[in-house]
Protein 1
Amino acid sequence: MAQGKGGATQASLAIGLMILALLLLNGELAKSEKFTVGDHHGWGFNVKNWPKDKTFHAGDILEFKYKKRHHNVVKVDLNGYANCTTDKAISTYDSGHDHIKLARGTHYFICGIADHCKVFEAMGNDVVGARDPVVFAGGNRWCGFRDGFLGFDLH
Protein backbone atom coordinates (compact mmCIF):
# COMPACT_ATOMS: atom_id res chain seq x y z
CA MET A 1 0.00 0.00 0.00
CA ALA A 2 1.46 3.36 -1.00
CA GLN A 3 2.03 6.00 1.61
CA GLY A 4 0.16 9.23 1.09
CA LYS A 5 1.54 12.71 1.57
CA GLY A 6 0.57 12.71 5.28
CA GLY A 7 2.44 9.46 5.93
CA ALA A 8 5.63 10.81 4.37
CA THR A 9 5.39 13.97 6.47
CA GLN A 10 4.92 11.92 9.65
CA ALA A 11 7.87 9.71 8.75
CA SER A 12 10.07 12.75 8.10
CA LEU A 13 9.00 14.27 11.41
CA ALA A 14 9.75 11.03 13.26
CA ILE A 15 13.21 10.76 11.68
CA GLY A 16 13.91 14.41 12.50
CA LEU A 17 12.90 13.89 16.14
CA MET A 18 15.09 10.79 16.40
CA ILE A 19 18.09 12.70 15.02
CA LEU A 20 17.44 15.55 17.45
CA ALA A 21 17.20 13.11 20.36
CA LEU A 22 20.49 11.46 19.38
CA LEU A 23 22.22 14.83 19.14
CA LEU A 24 20.92 15.84 22.56
CA LEU A 25 21.89 12.55 24.16
CA ASN A 26 25.32 12.25 22.57
CA GLY A 27 26.24 15.91 22.33
CA GLU A 28 27.68 17.98 25.10
CA LEU A 29 25.25 20.63 26.23
CA ALA A 30 27.34 22.92 28.37
CA LYS A 31 26.60 26.06 30.30
CA SER A 32 28.79 29.07 29.70
CA GLU A 33 29.86 31.94 31.90
CA LYS A 34 30.14 35.61 31.12
CA PHE A 35 33.20 37.46 32.42
CA THR A 36 33.34 41.25 32.48
CA VAL A 37 36.93 42.11 31.61
CA GLY A 38 38.43 44.29 34.34
CA ASP A 39 35.46 43.49 36.60
CA HIS A 40 33.68 46.70 37.68
CA HIS A 41 36.48 48.87 36.24
CA GLY A 42 35.90 47.53 32.72
CA TRP A 43 38.37 47.32 29.83
CA GLY A 44 41.05 49.92 30.44
CA PHE A 45 44.56 50.40 31.73
CA ASN A 46 46.15 47.72 33.93
CA VAL A 47 43.96 44.78 32.84
CA LYS A 48 46.99 42.69 31.88
CA ASN A 49 46.81 40.57 35.06
CA TRP A 50 43.01 40.40 35.26
CA PRO A 51 42.75 36.86 33.74
CA LYS A 52 45.39 35.27 36.02
CA ASP A 53 43.04 33.85 38.68
CA LYS A 54 40.33 32.78 36.24
CA THR A 55 39.69 29.62 34.25
CA PHE A 56 38.03 30.17 30.89
CA HIS A 57 36.23 27.41 29.02
CA ALA A 58 35.22 27.11 25.39
CA GLY A 59 31.86 28.82 25.00
CA ASP A 60 32.44 31.39 27.75
CA ILE A 61 31.84 35.04 26.90
CA LEU A 62 34.22 37.93 27.52
CA GLU A 63 32.33 41.19 27.99
CA PHE A 64 34.37 44.30 27.24
CA LYS A 65 32.91 47.56 28.63
CA TYR A 66 34.69 50.82 27.80
CA LYS A 67 34.14 54.36 26.60
CA LYS A 68 33.58 54.28 22.86
CA ARG A 69 36.08 56.43 20.88
CA HIS A 70 38.48 56.36 23.87
CA HIS A 71 39.26 52.64 23.63
CA ASN A 72 38.66 49.63 21.42
CA VAL A 73 39.35 45.90 21.55
CA VAL A 74 41.59 44.30 18.95
CA LYS A 75 42.08 40.54 18.83
CA VAL A 76 45.65 39.85 17.75
CA ASP A 77 48.13 36.99 17.56
CA LEU A 78 51.08 36.51 19.93
CA ASN A 79 53.29 38.83 17.87
CA GLY A 80 50.66 41.59 17.93
CA TYR A 81 50.32 41.17 21.68
CA ALA A 82 54.07 41.12 22.39
CA ASN A 83 54.77 44.14 20.16
CA CYS A 84 51.52 46.10 20.71
CA THR A 85 50.79 46.14 17.00
CA THR A 86 47.50 45.85 15.14
CA ASP A 87 49.09 45.33 11.71
CA LYS A 88 47.73 41.78 11.47
CA ALA A 89 44.60 42.17 13.61
CA ILE A 90 42.29 39.17 13.66
CA SER A 91 39.26 41.33 14.50
CA THR A 92 38.49 44.78 15.89
CA TYR A 93 35.59 45.77 18.15
CA ASP A 94 34.64 49.35 18.93
CA SER A 95 31.04 49.44 20.20
CA GLY A 96 31.95 50.18 23.83
CA HIS A 97 30.14 47.02 24.95
CA ASP A 98 31.46 43.99 23.11
CA HIS A 99 30.79 40.30 23.73
CA ILE A 100 33.32 37.77 22.45
CA LYS A 101 32.60 34.04 22.62
CA LEU A 102 35.75 32.07 23.38
CA ALA A 103 36.95 28.99 21.55
CA ARG A 104 39.59 26.63 22.91
CA GLY A 105 43.14 27.98 22.62
CA THR A 106 45.04 31.12 23.56
CA HIS A 107 43.53 34.52 22.81
CA TYR A 108 45.21 37.94 22.87
CA PHE A 109 43.43 41.29 23.10
CA ILE A 110 44.92 44.77 23.02
CA CYS A 111 43.63 48.32 22.74
CA GLY A 112 44.59 49.77 19.38
CA ILE A 113 44.15 53.41 20.41
CA ALA A 114 47.37 55.47 20.72
CA ASP A 115 49.84 53.80 23.13
CA HIS A 116 47.19 52.23 25.38
CA CYS A 117 48.59 48.73 24.84
CA LYS A 118 51.96 49.84 26.18
CA VAL A 119 50.37 50.92 29.48
CA PHE A 120 48.95 47.44 30.02
CA GLU A 121 45.67 47.72 28.15
CA ALA A 122 46.37 44.27 26.81
CA MET A 123 45.76 40.74 28.00
CA GLY A 124 46.17 37.15 26.99
CA ASN A 125 44.13 34.21 28.21
CA ASP A 126 44.10 30.46 27.75
CA VAL A 127 40.79 28.72 27.11
CA VAL A 128 40.33 25.06 28.01
CA GLY A 129 37.62 22.65 26.84
CA ALA A 130 33.91 23.07 27.43
CA ARG A 131 32.40 23.12 30.90
CA ASP A 132 30.66 20.08 32.36
CA PRO A 133 27.41 19.12 30.64
CA VAL A 134 24.21 20.61 31.99
CA VAL A 135 22.28 18.26 34.26
CA PHE A 136 18.54 18.41 33.79
CA ALA A 137 16.22 18.40 36.81
CA GLY A 138 15.41 15.03 38.28
CA GLY A 139 18.83 13.43 38.03
CA ASN A 140 22.43 13.72 39.04
CA ARG A 141 23.90 12.78 35.67
CA TRP A 142 23.28 13.39 31.98
CA CYS A 143 19.87 11.94 31.13
CA GLY A 144 19.70 9.06 28.69
CA PHE A 145 16.54 7.16 27.80
CA ARG A 146 16.95 4.81 30.74
CA ASP A 147 17.20 7.77 33.14
CA GLY A 148 14.62 10.05 31.57
CA PHE A 149 14.46 12.31 28.58
CA LEU A 150 15.02 16.05 29.04
CA GLY A 151 14.11 15.81 32.69
CA PHE A 152 10.99 13.66 32.22
CA ASP A 153 11.03 10.44 34.21
CA LEU A 154 10.33 7.47 31.94
CA HIS A 155 10.02 4.93 34.77
Protein 2
Amino acid sequence: MVRSVFIPRQKLFIHGGTTGDSVAPIAQTFYIDLSQKWPTSKPIYEKLADGTAAMGTTTALNNNNSAWYSFYQQSAFKFNIQSGTWETLSKSMELSTKDDLPAVTDPATNQIYILNGNLGPAGNIQGSIRFDTSKGFSSDSHVAPLVGGFTMNWSTLQKGAIVFGGFTADNFNPPTAQKTLYIYNPNNPVGSILVTPSNPGESPSARFDHCMVEAYNKTKMILFGGYEQSGRFLDDIYILDVATLKWTKGTAGGPTVARRRASCAVTNDYFVVWGGAVPGPTSSTMTAVSQNVTPTQCYGD
Protein backbone atom coordinates (compact mmCIF):
# COMPACT_ATOMS: atom_id res chain seq x y z
CA MET A 1 0.00 0.00 0.00
CA VAL A 2 2.31 2.69 -1.29
CA ARG A 3 2.05 5.66 -3.60
CA SER A 4 4.77 6.74 -5.96
CA VAL A 5 5.92 9.05 -8.72
CA PHE A 6 8.66 8.55 -11.28
CA ILE A 7 11.03 10.33 -13.65
CA PRO A 8 11.36 8.29 -16.89
CA ARG A 9 14.74 6.60 -17.32
CA GLN A 10 15.81 7.88 -13.90
CA LYS A 11 13.95 7.03 -10.70
CA LEU A 12 10.75 5.51 -9.31
CA PHE A 13 10.18 7.22 -5.95
CA ILE A 14 8.37 5.37 -3.18
CA HIS A 15 7.32 6.59 0.25
CA GLY A 16 5.61 4.89 3.17
CA GLY A 17 3.37 1.85 3.05
CA THR A 18 2.47 -0.99 5.36
CA THR A 19 3.35 -4.66 5.55
CA GLY A 20 -0.19 -5.93 6.04
CA ASP A 21 -3.69 -5.41 7.32
CA SER A 22 -3.96 -3.54 10.64
CA VAL A 23 -0.22 -2.82 10.63
CA ALA A 24 0.99 0.72 11.36
CA PRO A 25 2.33 2.67 8.36
CA ILE A 26 6.07 3.13 7.92
CA ALA A 27 8.26 6.12 7.06
CA GLN A 28 10.58 4.54 4.49
CA THR A 29 11.53 6.57 1.43
CA PHE A 30 13.65 5.30 -1.44
CA TYR A 31 13.85 5.08 -5.18
CA ILE A 32 14.28 2.25 -7.67
CA ASP A 33 16.91 3.03 -10.29
CA LEU A 34 15.30 3.17 -13.74
CA SER A 35 18.50 4.15 -15.53
CA GLN A 36 19.99 0.64 -15.34
CA LYS A 37 18.85 -2.88 -16.14
CA TRP A 38 18.34 -5.29 -13.25
CA PRO A 39 16.72 -8.69 -12.67
CA THR A 40 13.25 -8.64 -11.14
CA SER A 41 14.61 -10.60 -8.19
CA LYS A 42 17.13 -7.87 -7.40
CA PRO A 43 16.06 -4.30 -8.22
CA ILE A 44 18.57 -1.50 -7.64
CA TYR A 45 17.35 0.48 -4.63
CA GLU A 46 18.67 3.73 -3.16
CA LYS A 47 17.64 4.67 0.38
CA LEU A 48 16.50 8.25 0.97
CA ALA A 49 15.75 10.20 4.14
CA ASP A 50 12.63 8.92 5.91
CA GLY A 51 9.50 11.03 5.63
CA THR A 52 6.45 10.96 7.88
CA ALA A 53 5.01 7.51 8.56
CA ALA A 54 2.24 7.19 6.00
CA MET A 55 0.16 4.76 3.97
CA GLY A 56 -1.24 5.57 0.53
CA THR A 57 -0.09 9.18 0.46
CA THR A 58 -1.27 11.54 -2.25
CA THR A 59 1.87 12.57 -4.17
CA ALA A 60 3.04 14.50 -7.23
CA LEU A 61 6.23 15.92 -8.71
CA ASN A 62 6.46 19.59 -9.60
CA ASN A 63 6.75 20.58 -13.25
CA ASN A 64 10.56 20.49 -13.44
CA ASN A 65 11.03 17.33 -11.34
CA SER A 66 13.02 19.17 -8.67
CA ALA A 67 10.57 18.59 -5.82
CA TRP A 68 8.25 15.79 -4.74
CA TYR A 69 5.11 16.86 -2.87
CA SER A 70 3.23 14.57 -0.51
CA PHE A 71 -0.15 15.10 1.17
CA TYR A 72 -1.15 13.07 4.19
CA GLN A 73 -3.51 13.60 7.14
CA GLN A 74 -4.33 17.15 6.00
CA SER A 75 -0.68 18.25 5.81
CA ALA A 76 1.63 18.97 2.88
CA PHE A 77 5.26 17.82 2.75
CA LYS A 78 8.03 18.57 0.27
CA PHE A 79 11.03 16.40 -0.61
CA ASN A 80 13.85 18.32 -2.27
CA ILE A 81 15.27 15.87 -4.79
CA GLN A 82 18.65 17.59 -5.07
CA SER A 83 19.34 17.95 -1.33
CA GLY A 84 17.50 14.77 -0.33
CA THR A 85 15.66 16.47 2.54
CA TRP A 86 12.03 16.63 3.69
CA GLU A 87 10.21 19.82 4.67
CA THR A 88 6.82 20.14 6.37
CA LEU A 89 4.66 22.75 4.64
CA SER A 90 1.16 24.04 5.33
CA LYS A 91 -1.94 22.30 6.66
CA SER A 92 -5.53 22.40 5.41
CA MET A 93 -8.51 21.21 7.44
CA GLU A 94 -10.45 20.90 4.16
CA LEU A 95 -8.01 18.33 2.74
CA SER A 96 -9.41 14.80 2.66
CA THR A 97 -7.85 12.22 4.97
CA LYS A 98 -8.57 9.42 2.50
CA ASP A 99 -5.50 7.41 1.55
CA ASP A 100 -6.48 6.51 -2.01
CA LEU A 101 -6.73 9.85 -3.81
CA PRO A 102 -4.32 10.66 -6.67
CA ALA A 103 -2.84 14.06 -7.50
CA VAL A 104 -1.70 15.64 -10.78
CA THR A 105 0.48 18.61 -11.65
CA ASP A 106 -0.47 20.99 -14.45
CA PRO A 107 2.94 21.50 -16.12
CA ALA A 108 1.91 24.91 -17.45
CA THR A 109 1.05 26.40 -14.03
CA ASN A 110 2.96 24.11 -11.62
CA GLN A 111 -0.25 23.73 -9.62
CA ILE A 112 -1.16 20.40 -8.05
CA TYR A 113 -4.78 19.21 -8.12
CA ILE A 114 -6.47 16.63 -5.89
CA LEU A 115 -9.84 15.75 -7.41
CA ASN A 116 -12.57 15.24 -4.77
CA GLY A 117 -9.99 16.15 -2.13
CA ASN A 118 -12.10 18.83 -0.41
CA LEU A 119 -14.25 17.39 2.38
CA GLY A 120 -17.04 19.12 4.25
CA PRO A 121 -17.51 19.04 8.05
CA ALA A 122 -19.61 15.88 7.80
CA GLY A 123 -17.01 14.10 5.68
CA ASN A 124 -18.92 14.62 2.44
CA ILE A 125 -17.10 15.46 -0.80
CA GLN A 126 -17.74 19.10 -1.60
CA GLY A 127 -15.01 19.92 -4.08
CA SER A 128 -11.37 19.58 -5.05
CA ILE A 129 -8.10 20.86 -3.63
CA ARG A 130 -5.61 23.03 -5.48
CA PHE A 131 -2.08 23.32 -4.11
CA ASP A 132 0.05 26.19 -5.37
CA THR A 133 3.70 25.32 -4.75
CA SER A 134 4.32 28.97 -3.83
CA LYS A 135 1.10 29.95 -2.04
CA GLY A 136 -0.31 26.75 -0.52
CA PHE A 137 -3.86 25.36 -0.42
CA SER A 138 -7.09 26.58 -1.98
CA SER A 139 -10.30 24.78 -2.94
CA ASP A 140 -12.99 24.77 -5.61
CA SER A 141 -16.35 23.11 -6.19
CA HIS A 142 -15.23 20.66 -8.91
CA VAL A 143 -16.21 17.06 -8.21
CA ALA A 144 -16.45 13.75 -10.04
CA PRO A 145 -19.03 11.10 -9.04
CA LEU A 146 -16.34 8.90 -7.48
CA VAL A 147 -15.38 8.29 -3.86
CA GLY A 148 -11.88 6.87 -4.30
CA GLY A 149 -9.69 4.22 -5.89
CA PHE A 150 -9.43 6.03 -9.25
CA THR A 151 -6.35 7.08 -11.21
CA MET A 152 -5.65 10.54 -12.58
CA ASN A 153 -2.91 11.52 -15.05
CA TRP A 154 -2.32 14.89 -16.67
CA SER A 155 -2.57 15.04 -20.47
CA THR A 156 -1.38 18.04 -22.45
CA LEU A 157 -3.13 16.62 -25.52
CA GLN A 158 -6.48 16.45 -23.72
CA LYS A 159 -5.87 19.74 -21.85
CA GLY A 160 -6.68 18.16 -18.51
CA ALA A 161 -6.35 15.06 -16.39
CA ILE A 162 -7.54 11.65 -17.57
CA VAL A 163 -9.49 9.94 -14.77
CA PHE A 164 -10.34 6.24 -14.89
CA GLY A 165 -12.08 3.69 -12.68
CA GLY A 166 -12.51 3.96 -8.95
CA PHE A 167 -15.62 3.30 -6.93
CA THR A 168 -18.84 4.96 -5.89
CA ALA A 169 -20.53 4.50 -2.51
CA ASP A 170 -23.12 6.09 -0.26
CA ASN A 171 -24.76 5.51 3.10
CA PHE A 172 -27.04 2.84 1.67
CA ASN A 173 -24.82 0.93 -0.76
CA PRO A 174 -21.38 -0.70 -0.57
CA PRO A 175 -18.53 0.46 -2.85
CA THR A 176 -19.28 -0.21 -6.52
CA ALA A 177 -16.39 -0.48 -9.00
CA GLN A 178 -16.51 1.79 -12.06
CA LYS A 179 -15.09 1.77 -15.60
CA THR A 180 -15.91 5.33 -16.57
CA LEU A 181 -13.45 7.70 -18.21
CA TYR A 182 -13.46 11.41 -17.34
CA ILE A 183 -11.45 14.42 -18.43
CA TYR A 184 -10.88 16.76 -15.49
CA ASN A 185 -10.02 20.34 -16.46
CA PRO A 186 -9.65 22.51 -13.36
CA ASN A 187 -10.02 25.67 -15.47
CA ASN A 188 -13.33 24.53 -16.95
CA PRO A 189 -16.39 25.60 -14.90
CA VAL A 190 -17.85 22.13 -15.42
CA GLY A 191 -14.74 20.45 -14.00
CA SER A 192 -15.05 16.75 -14.85
CA ILE A 193 -16.57 15.66 -18.16
CA LEU A 194 -17.66 12.07 -18.81
CA VAL A 195 -16.05 10.83 -22.02
CA THR A 196 -17.62 8.24 -24.33
CA PRO A 197 -15.13 7.57 -27.17
CA SER A 198 -16.67 6.63 -30.51
CA ASN A 199 -14.16 3.77 -30.79
CA PRO A 200 -13.11 2.78 -27.25
CA GLY A 201 -11.35 -0.41 -28.33
CA GLU A 202 -11.01 -3.18 -25.75
CA SER A 203 -11.49 -1.20 -22.56
CA PRO A 204 -10.66 -2.37 -19.01
CA SER A 205 -13.31 -3.87 -16.76
CA ALA A 206 -14.66 -1.93 -13.79
CA ARG A 207 -12.01 -1.75 -11.05
CA PHE A 208 -10.37 0.33 -8.36
CA ASP A 209 -6.92 0.53 -6.72
CA HIS A 210 -5.22 -0.02 -10.10
CA CYS A 211 -2.25 2.00 -11.33
CA MET A 212 -2.03 4.05 -14.52
CA VAL A 213 1.08 5.87 -15.74
CA GLU A 214 2.18 7.96 -18.71
CA ALA A 215 4.45 6.54 -21.42
CA TYR A 216 6.07 7.50 -24.72
CA ASN A 217 6.17 11.26 -24.09
CA LYS A 218 2.66 11.08 -22.65
CA THR A 219 1.12 9.89 -25.92
CA LYS A 220 0.10 6.64 -24.19
CA MET A 221 -1.07 5.68 -20.74
CA ILE A 222 -0.64 2.20 -19.33
CA LEU A 223 -3.08 0.72 -16.83
CA PHE A 224 -2.31 -2.31 -14.70
CA GLY A 225 -4.01 -4.48 -12.10
CA GLY A 226 -6.41 -3.38 -9.40
CA TYR A 227 -9.36 -4.94 -7.64
CA GLU A 228 -12.65 -6.11 -9.16
CA GLN A 229 -16.11 -5.91 -7.63
CA SER A 230 -16.07 -9.70 -7.17
CA GLY A 231 -13.00 -9.44 -4.93
CA ARG A 232 -10.54 -10.67 -7.55
CA PHE A 233 -7.07 -9.16 -7.73
CA LEU A 234 -6.25 -8.29 -11.34
CA ASP A 235 -3.13 -9.01 -13.42
CA ASP A 236 -4.17 -7.47 -16.75
CA ILE A 237 -2.66 -4.55 -18.62
CA TYR A 238 -4.11 -2.01 -21.06
CA ILE A 239 -2.63 0.76 -23.21
CA LEU A 240 -4.66 3.93 -23.79
CA ASP A 241 -3.91 6.07 -26.84
CA VAL A 242 -4.23 9.57 -25.40
CA ALA A 243 -5.16 11.30 -28.67
CA THR A 244 -8.02 8.94 -29.60
CA LEU A 245 -8.85 7.54 -26.12
CA LYS A 246 -8.83 4.05 -27.63
CA TRP A 247 -7.79 1.13 -25.42
CA THR A 248 -5.65 -1.83 -26.46
CA LYS A 249 -5.38 -4.90 -24.24
CA GLY A 250 -1.96 -6.41 -23.58
CA THR A 251 -0.99 -9.85 -22.30
CA ALA A 252 -1.86 -10.44 -18.64
CA GLY A 253 1.02 -11.09 -16.27
CA GLY A 254 -0.46 -14.17 -14.60
CA PRO A 255 -1.70 -14.93 -11.06
CA THR A 256 1.64 -14.22 -9.37
CA VAL A 257 1.58 -10.67 -10.74
CA ALA A 258 -2.02 -9.80 -9.71
CA ARG A 259 -2.17 -7.00 -7.13
CA ARG A 260 -3.79 -3.73 -6.12
CA ARG A 261 -2.31 -0.41 -4.93
CA ALA A 262 1.05 -1.05 -6.56
CA SER A 263 3.70 1.49 -7.51
CA CYS A 264 4.27 1.66 -11.27
CA ALA A 265 6.53 3.30 -13.82
CA VAL A 266 7.51 3.09 -17.48
CA THR A 267 11.11 3.41 -18.56
CA ASN A 268 12.19 2.89 -22.16
CA ASP A 269 10.03 -0.11 -23.19
CA TYR A 270 9.73 -1.60 -19.70
CA PHE A 271 6.75 -1.41 -17.39
CA VAL A 272 7.83 -1.67 -13.75
CA VAL A 273 5.57 -2.67 -10.84
CA TRP A 274 6.68 -2.71 -7.21
CA GLY A 275 4.84 -3.70 -4.06
CA GLY A 276 1.11 -3.40 -3.61
CA ALA A 277 -1.32 -5.73 -1.88
CA VAL A 278 -1.86 -9.34 -2.92
CA PRO A 279 -4.37 -11.93 -1.67
CA GLY A 280 -3.52 -12.89 1.89
CA PRO A 281 -2.73 -11.15 5.16
CA THR A 282 0.37 -9.28 3.96
CA SER A 283 1.34 -7.02 1.09
CA SER A 284 3.92 -7.96 -1.51
CA THR A 285 6.29 -5.21 -0.48
CA MET A 286 9.47 -7.05 -1.40
CA THR A 287 8.53 -8.15 -4.91
CA ALA A 288 9.35 -6.19 -8.06
CA VAL A 289 7.83 -7.05 -11.44
CA SER A 290 9.33 -5.78 -14.69
CA GLN A 291 7.68 -6.44 -18.03
CA ASN A 292 8.49 -5.42 -21.58
CA VAL A 293 5.78 -3.23 -23.08
CA THR A 294 4.94 -2.78 -26.75
CA PRO A 295 1.91 -0.83 -28.02
CA THR A 296 -0.13 -4.04 -28.19
CA GLN A 297 1.37 -6.61 -25.87
CA CYS A 298 3.20 -7.10 -22.60
CA TYR A 299 5.76 -9.87 -22.27
CA GLY A 300 7.55 -11.12 -19.19
CA ASP A 301 11.29 -10.57 -19.42
Protein 3
Amino acid sequence: MTMEAIATRARVGKPTLYRWWPSKGAVFLDVVLDRIVEPAVQLPDTGDIARDLRTWIRGFADLFTDPHARQLLVGLLGAAQTDAELATMLREKIQRPLQASNRERITAAQSAGQLPAMDPVLLEELLISPPWYRLLVSGEPVTPAYADALVDAVLGAHGGSSR
Protein backbone atom coordinates (compact mmCIF):
# COMPACT_ATOMS: atom_id res chain seq x y z
CA MET A 1 0.00 0.00 0.00
CA THR A 2 1.33 3.41 -0.94
CA MET A 3 0.70 6.85 0.54
CA GLU A 4 -1.15 7.65 -2.67
CA ALA A 5 -3.46 4.67 -2.14
CA ILE A 6 -4.04 5.70 1.47
CA ALA A 7 -4.82 9.27 0.37
CA THR A 8 -7.23 8.04 -2.29
CA ARG A 9 -9.02 5.75 0.14
CA ALA A 10 -9.23 8.54 2.74
CA ARG A 11 -10.37 10.99 0.05
CA VAL A 12 -7.63 13.48 0.89
CA GLY A 13 -4.54 14.70 -0.88
CA LYS A 14 -1.09 13.31 -0.20
CA PRO A 15 0.05 16.63 1.32
CA THR A 16 -2.67 16.25 3.95
CA LEU A 17 -1.33 12.82 4.88
CA TYR A 18 2.22 14.08 5.10
CA ARG A 19 1.13 16.89 7.42
CA TRP A 20 0.01 14.28 9.93
CA TRP A 21 2.37 11.37 9.23
CA PRO A 22 5.93 11.56 7.90
CA SER A 23 5.76 8.13 6.27
CA LYS A 24 3.58 5.17 5.42
CA GLY A 25 5.07 3.36 8.41
CA ALA A 26 3.90 6.14 10.72
CA VAL A 27 0.37 5.70 9.36
CA PHE A 28 0.62 1.95 10.01
CA LEU A 29 1.88 2.61 13.54
CA ASP A 30 -1.10 4.82 14.38
CA VAL A 31 -3.52 2.23 13.03
CA VAL A 32 -1.78 -0.53 15.01
CA LEU A 33 -1.94 1.58 18.17
CA ASP A 34 -5.60 2.42 17.64
CA ARG A 35 -6.99 -0.89 16.46
CA ILE A 36 -4.67 -3.64 17.59
CA VAL A 37 -2.54 -2.96 20.66
CA GLU A 38 -5.20 -2.31 23.27
CA PRO A 39 -7.72 -4.99 22.36
CA ALA A 40 -5.39 -7.76 21.25
CA VAL A 41 -1.96 -7.75 22.82
CA GLN A 42 -2.39 -6.89 26.49
CA LEU A 43 -1.58 -9.73 28.89
CA PRO A 44 -4.81 -10.22 30.87
CA ASP A 45 -4.95 -10.58 34.65
CA THR A 46 -7.58 -13.00 35.90
CA GLY A 47 -5.40 -14.37 38.69
CA ASP A 48 -4.60 -17.56 36.75
CA ILE A 49 -1.35 -16.90 34.91
CA ALA A 50 -1.38 -20.08 32.81
CA ARG A 51 -4.86 -19.26 31.51
CA ASP A 52 -3.88 -15.63 31.02
CA LEU A 53 -0.79 -16.60 29.01
CA ARG A 54 -2.86 -18.92 26.82
CA THR A 55 -5.41 -16.15 26.25
CA TRP A 56 -2.60 -13.71 25.45
CA ILE A 57 -0.91 -15.97 22.88
CA ARG A 58 -4.31 -16.94 21.45
CA GLY A 59 -4.91 -13.20 20.95
CA PHE A 60 -1.86 -13.16 18.71
CA ALA A 61 -3.19 -16.26 16.92
CA ASP A 62 -6.43 -14.40 16.19
CA LEU A 63 -4.54 -11.30 15.14
CA PHE A 64 -2.13 -13.14 12.85
CA THR A 65 -4.92 -15.00 11.06
CA ASP A 66 -6.79 -11.77 10.26
CA PRO A 67 -5.56 -10.87 6.75
CA HIS A 68 -5.85 -7.11 7.29
CA ALA A 69 -4.06 -7.14 10.64
CA ARG A 70 -1.42 -9.48 9.25
CA GLN A 71 -0.74 -7.16 6.29
CA LEU A 72 -0.61 -4.14 8.56
CA LEU A 73 1.82 -5.73 11.02
CA VAL A 74 4.11 -7.10 8.33
CA GLY A 75 4.09 -3.69 6.61
CA LEU A 76 4.85 -1.85 9.85
CA LEU A 77 7.70 -4.14 10.83
CA GLY A 78 9.10 -4.13 7.31
CA ALA A 79 9.06 -0.34 7.21
CA ALA A 80 10.72 -0.14 10.63
CA GLN A 81 13.71 -2.08 9.27
CA THR A 82 14.69 0.84 7.04
CA ASP A 83 13.20 3.79 8.93
CA ALA A 84 15.13 4.42 12.17
CA GLU A 85 12.64 7.04 13.35
CA LEU A 86 9.74 4.62 12.89
CA ALA A 87 11.66 1.84 14.66
CA THR A 88 12.22 4.16 17.61
CA MET A 89 8.53 5.14 17.69
CA LEU A 90 7.54 1.46 17.52
CA ARG A 91 9.72 0.66 20.53
CA GLU A 92 8.60 3.72 22.51
CA LYS A 93 4.87 3.52 21.78
CA ILE A 94 4.30 -0.24 21.65
CA GLN A 95 7.14 -2.53 22.68
CA ARG A 96 8.38 -0.81 25.85
CA PRO A 97 4.95 -0.04 27.36
CA LEU A 98 3.73 -3.58 26.67
CA GLN A 99 6.91 -5.09 28.05
CA ALA A 100 6.58 -3.00 31.24
CA SER A 101 2.94 -4.05 31.67
CA ASN A 102 3.75 -7.70 30.97
CA ARG A 103 6.72 -7.59 33.36
CA GLU A 104 4.42 -6.36 36.15
CA ARG A 105 1.94 -9.18 35.48
CA ILE A 106 4.67 -11.84 35.27
CA THR A 107 6.40 -10.56 38.41
CA ALA A 108 3.10 -10.63 40.31
CA ALA A 109 2.52 -14.22 39.19
CA GLN A 110 6.06 -15.12 40.28
CA SER A 111 5.42 -13.56 43.71
CA ALA A 112 2.21 -15.62 43.97
CA GLY A 113 4.16 -18.81 43.17
CA GLN A 114 2.41 -19.30 39.81
CA LEU A 115 5.58 -18.89 37.75
CA PRO A 116 9.21 -19.84 38.31
CA ALA A 117 11.69 -17.23 39.48
CA MET A 118 13.42 -16.17 36.29
CA ASP A 119 13.93 -12.99 34.33
CA PRO A 120 10.37 -11.84 33.44
CA VAL A 121 11.55 -10.25 30.19
CA LEU A 122 13.17 -13.53 29.13
CA LEU A 123 9.98 -15.43 29.98
CA GLU A 124 7.93 -12.97 27.92
CA GLU A 125 10.36 -13.29 25.00
CA LEU A 126 10.29 -17.10 25.17
CA LEU A 127 6.51 -16.95 24.79
CA ILE A 128 6.09 -14.18 22.25
CA SER A 129 8.98 -14.83 19.87
CA PRO A 130 7.70 -18.08 18.30
CA PRO A 131 4.39 -16.57 17.08
CA TRP A 132 6.24 -13.61 15.57
CA TYR A 133 8.72 -16.00 13.93
CA ARG A 134 5.80 -17.84 12.34
CA LEU A 135 4.26 -14.57 11.13
CA LEU A 136 7.44 -13.05 9.73
CA VAL A 137 9.66 -15.98 8.73
CA SER A 138 8.13 -19.44 8.39
CA GLY A 139 4.59 -18.49 7.40
CA GLU A 140 3.25 -21.33 9.54
CA PRO A 141 -0.11 -20.58 11.16
CA VAL A 142 -0.42 -19.50 14.77
CA THR A 143 -3.44 -21.51 15.85
CA PRO A 144 -5.11 -21.70 19.26
CA ALA A 145 -3.74 -25.24 19.63
CA TYR A 146 -0.25 -23.96 18.86
CA ALA A 147 -0.70 -21.14 21.39
CA ASP A 148 -1.70 -23.61 24.11
CA ALA A 149 1.16 -25.99 23.26
CA LEU A 150 3.64 -23.12 23.33
CA VAL A 151 2.54 -21.94 26.78
CA ASP A 152 2.58 -25.52 28.10
CA ALA A 153 6.08 -26.12 26.68
CA VAL A 154 7.57 -22.89 28.05
CA LEU A 155 6.00 -23.22 31.48
CA GLY A 156 6.80 -26.93 31.67
CA ALA A 157 10.41 -26.39 30.65
CA HIS A 158 10.89 -23.76 33.32
CA GLY A 159 9.13 -25.46 36.21
CA GLY A 160 5.90 -23.50 36.01
CA SER A 161 2.40 -24.87 36.23
CA SER A 162 0.85 -25.11 32.79
CA ARG A 163 -2.59 -26.26 33.84
